[in-house]
Amino acid sequence: MIAAVVVSASYVAAQMMADIASLRIVTMFGLSIDAGTFVYPFTFTLRDLVHKVAGIKAARALIVTAAVVNLLMALLFWFVSVLPADLAVGPQVAFGEVLAPVWRIVIASIAAEVISEMIDTESYRLWVQRVTERYQWMRVLVSNSVSVPVDSLVFAWLAFGGMLPADVVWSIVLANVLIKGAVTLISLPAIYLVQPAGEE
Question: What CATH number labels 2-193?
Fold first, then answer.
């Protein structure tokens, strides 16, 4: 029970941090990267941990809950940014300039999260049911290998397609896949940190 709470809270927190960080595009090793990519890949393994410890229904519910929380967060940031500032404190323009949501990015991020995480969930389930319950690290690797490219393609093209040059969008896709793949390899051992509560 405690493990399920901890990994679920970590999943939602990582989703929120990634959505906020995605508002900034940075460069690394000559590639354009939305900064949420440094956090978001951990959500795939965290979701696998939830699946293992609480089952597929809990994993699906968590994906939808995180999407709703991220949407509410964006609405809150928008609401706060349009309220008049207390001029006794100062104009406080930085909040709105930084955190007021770019709705296209918000929608792209939530859509990519829900689509890719549901695919990850089903890939994980199929691996356990149809292939083997052994080699737990392999179920994480397989499910992430399917969902990471889908997430990267959906997010980058929904968020930036037609707004940024195509080569920049493809650079974002490539950087996303590379970084998320590396994080998958680093986070593989985490699947052994929790005990199953009856996998479905």
Answer: 1.10.1760
